[in-house]
Specification:
Rossmann fold; 7 helices
């Protein structure tokens, strides 16, 4: 199983009481996504943020990483399933390092990282505090009813003007998760493409603060 590594942001004072693992999009890396922690940290001052590089070099260019190959629909689904244990192992390792349980962890993914997060999170035997899915989709929803292992809450946000991954994928993900009893917070944002803006940061920060607060009760 590949070992993940990448940049991190630790709390300015004291030991972290929670962890957010952030999965980047295809052709990117952890150094790109870790900058998001600077905007999330004010609402989560005691949280450690980790943004690992995906385990595979991007097969569409000479730089960047990918969680799986998207050359065909088949390789996409197979790749999502194959990489999920690596992501889950990374989350569990970080929780252990920080002396935390998995319900003090949030899995956040953007684009391809969102697709991986929405597959892995609901299938974990040890539930997370929540999953944050940004500009992605649920590509393994057809088997989720048979494979779901927990119903940790999910936050979904997507730009209505996304020309890379249509917002319809997030709407479909929300419907599939809600049909299985998963609490979903859905934001479809006008004037936003395949990106993250201040509205997403504000809403996602509030969601993570809420679910981590409940997990600490």
């Amino acid at each position: 199983m590949p070992v993940l590594n990448g940049p991190r942001r630790m709390p300015r004072e004291g030991r972290p009481d929670s962890v957010v693992v952030m999965l980047h999009g295809i052709g990117s890396d952890g150094d790109d996504l870790i900058s998001l922690a600077d905007f999330l940290a004010p609402a989560l001052p005691s949280t450690a943020f980790h943004a690992p590089n995906a385990p595979h070099r991007f097969d569409g260019a000479a730089y960047g990483y990918q969680w799986y190959s998207r050359r065909t629909p088949e390789t996409r689904v197979e790749g999502v399933r194959a990489v999920a244990p690596t992501v889950n192992a990374f989350v569990d390792e970080l929780a252990a390092q920080h002396g935390l349980t998995s319900d003090r962890c949030v899995l956040l993914g953007f684009s391809q990282g969102c697709i991986v997060s929405l597959h892995a999170g609901p299938r974990r035997k040890e539930p997370l505090a929540g999953v944050v899915g940004l500009s992605g989709a649920l590509v393994t929803g057809d088997t989720l009813a048979a494979e779901i292992a927990n119903r940790a809450p999910v936050f979904l946000a997507h730009g209505e003007e996304d020309g890379v991954l249509p917002a319809a994928g997030t709407r479909q993900a929300a419907a599939a998760l809600e049909a299985l009893g998963v609490p979903v917070e859905l934001h479809i944002l006008t004037g936003l493409g395949h990106s993250i803006d201040g509205r997403v940061v504000q809403a996602a920060s509030a969601f993570m603060r809420r679910v981590l607060s409940k997990a600490g009760d």
